[in-house]
Amino acid sequence: MAAKKPVTLKKIGEQLNISAMAVSKALRGDPSISKETIQKVKQLAEELNYRPNSIAKSLRTNETKTLGLVIADSTLSLFAPVIEGIEDVASENGYNIILCNAHSNKEKEKEAIRTLIDKRIDGFMLAASTLTAKKYKAFLDSFGVPYVFLVRRCEYESGSYVVNDNIYGATQMINYLVKTGSKRIHYINLSKDIVTAGEREEGYCRALHENGIAPDPEILYNVAPTFDGGYAQMTQLLHEKEKIETVFCGCDMIAVGAMESILEHGLKIPEDIRLASYDDIEFAKYLRIPLTTVRQPKYRIGEQGARMLIEMIGEKQSNCSHIMLKPELILREST
């Protein structure tokens, strides 16, 4: 069966005995066209399922009303509320979203950005990007469209980002743990090459100092932000037979792995080991031991990031803006 040809302005005009130009003006509500004609054109266009030629329109306006979004890892539930916030704002403002998965790989993230640029997007967002270092700025700037970092900030002042305050969040958690009895807190942090790791470590150390406890670098570890990373590090610690009273993890996926290892070794949470974390991913409250964690304002990060990018596209603000949102302490059974 042959594909049905798309409905054109010319076809609508032929059925109403008016020009394609008049149809175009009527669809835009041009005052030079009578209200009666506008009504007839819009009614027929709806009946025929007419869709504007977005490519032709983008060539005229130099805008596609499309935003790009590159996610570090689309399998992580952390990003679902971020995407929801972006989509809500984009829809309100007449934008579509093209989503790419970078698989937490720098080269794949670069290729995803190039693909989005080929689609003539008006701007793009990078969620938990691997390209936050200053050495990648020239690459990102070379495409000539605005962009915004989400979840992880860029490591230079002249970039735009929307993130949560990692230092504040980690400080709040450590203060809570110390004030409720923990004195020696092992920290299984994110990989050192992730900018967030340094910020959360700073909050961890700051809170210990504020409580008169000297941070011990011997109980601070850096692992991949995955289940396997947390499981392997926790298993190693338990095999060393060192007394462990409290473990703080740099993200919930690390904590899920650590929890599995603790329980496999016949230990109880929180009776034997208290466990706390950061992010508050969707299933943190549904784990065998519901997880105490720091909740990132994920929806608001997406919402404000999309709004920032759209304003940059419309040149309603400068090309550099920073928003840092306060996270929230979520107390559950693991501590």
From TrEMBL:
Residues of the HTH lacI-type domain: 7-61
GO molecular function (one): transcription cis-regulatory region binding
InterPro entries per the UniProt record, alphabetical: HTH_LacI, LacI/GalR-like_sensor, Lambda_DNA-bd_dom_sf, Peripla_BP_I
UniProt keyword annotation of DNA-binding present: yes
Keywords: DNA-binding, Transcription, Transcription regulation
Source organism superkingdom: Bacteria
Official protein name in the record: Sugar-binding domain protein
